[in-house]
C-alpha cells in the first residue's frame, strides 16, 4: 500500500529543496508547480482561457504565457488571483488525481504530493501525512527578495497570497524547520524517512 505524503511550505521556504531530496531517494513526485505549467502551455485550453480573461497582453511574442506579467496582475489584486485559480485549479486537480491513481496502481512505497497550496486547496485530503517546510517570516522575505529579484513590496504581496506559514505549521503532521543550514534540514528529512521505514 502506498503512503502519500502531502508536502507544502511557503514561497521561498525551501519546499522545493526537500522535494528534490525525496526525488533523489527515488520517490515519485506529483509536482503541482510542474502541472500548473503544463496546463497553461501553448496550445492548451487553460492558456486560451487566461488570454481571454486577462487579455493577450499576458502572452509572449511566441504565444507562451508571460508569467512575470501575469504575476504582476494577480499578486496585486486578490480578485484577479481568484479568477486565475478558478481557471487553472480544476485542470491542476484533474491531473494530480490522474497521477496519484497511476502511482498507487504501480504500488509505489511513498508518493510525494508536492503542492504549495496544499491546505488552501484542500489537497491534504489526498494525503496520508502532511509535511510543511517552515521558515520564520523575516527569513522568508529576505530569501524571496534575493531569489526572485523583487523589492520588499512585491515580495510581501506574493507571501500574502498564501496562508501564513505559522498556520500551515499548526496544521501539518510533520514540520521541517529550514531556518538553519541545509545540512540540518536534510537531517530532519532523513529522520522522517527512517521513522517511517523508508530510508534507502
Automatic annotation (TrEMBL):
Its main location: cytoplasm. Keywords: ATP-binding, Coenzyme A biosynthesis, Cytoplasm, Kinase, Nucleotide-binding, Transferase. Pathway: Cofactor biosynthesis; coenzyme A biosynthesis; CoA from (R)-pantothenate: step 5/5. Coiled coil: none annotated. Its EC number is 2.7.1.24. The keyword Zinc-finger does not apply. One of its GO terms (cellular component) is cytoplasm. It catalyses: 3'-dephospho-CoA + ATP = ADP + CoA + H(+). It is an enzyme of class 2 (transferase). It is found in: Cytoplasm. Signal peptide: none annotated. GO terms for biological process: coenzyme A biosynthetic process. ATP binds at residues 12-17. Catalyzes the phosphorylation of the 3'-hydroxyl group of dephosphocoenzyme A to form coenzyme A. Belongs to the CoaE family. This is Dephospho-CoA kinase. It comes from Loigolactobacillus coryniformis subsp. coryniformis KCTC 3167 = DSM 20001. The lineage of its organism: Bacteria, Bacillati, Bacillota, Bacilli, Lactobacillales.
Amino acid at each position: 500500500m502506498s503512503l502519500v505524503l502531502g508536502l507544502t511550505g511557503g514561497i521561498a521556504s525551501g519546499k522545493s529543496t526537500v522535494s528534490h531530496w525525496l526525488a533523489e531517494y527515488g520517490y515519485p513526485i506529483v509536482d503541482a508547480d510542474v502541472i500548473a505549467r503544463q496546463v497553461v502551455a501553448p496550445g492548451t485550453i487553460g492558456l486560451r482561457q487566461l488570454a481571454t480573461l486577462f487579455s493577450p497582453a499576458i502572452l509572449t511574442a511566441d504565444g507562451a504565457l508571460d508569467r512575470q506579467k501575469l504575476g504582476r496582475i494577480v499578486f496585486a489584486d486578490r480578485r484577479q488571483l481568484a479568477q486565475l485559480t478558478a481557471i487553472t485549479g480544476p485542470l491542476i486537480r484533474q491531473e494530480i488525481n490522474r497521477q496519484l491513481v497511476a502511482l498507487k496502481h504501480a504500488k509505489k512505497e511513498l508518493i510525494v504530493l508536492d503542492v504549495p497550496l496544499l491546505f488552501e486547496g484542500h489537497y491534504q485530503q489526498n494525503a496520508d501525512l502532511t509535511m510543511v517546510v517552515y521558515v520564520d517570516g523575516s527569513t522568508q522575505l529576505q530569501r524571496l527578495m534575493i531569489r526572485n529579484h523583487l523589492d520588499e513590496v512585491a515580495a510581501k504581496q506574493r507571501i500574502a497570497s498564501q496562508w501564513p506559514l505559522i498556520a500551515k505549521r499548526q496544521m501539518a503532521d510533520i514540520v521541517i524547520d529550514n531556518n538553519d543550514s541545509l545540512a540540518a534540514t536534510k537531517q530532519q528529512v532523513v529522520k522522517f524517512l527512517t521513522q517511517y521505514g523508508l530510508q534507502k
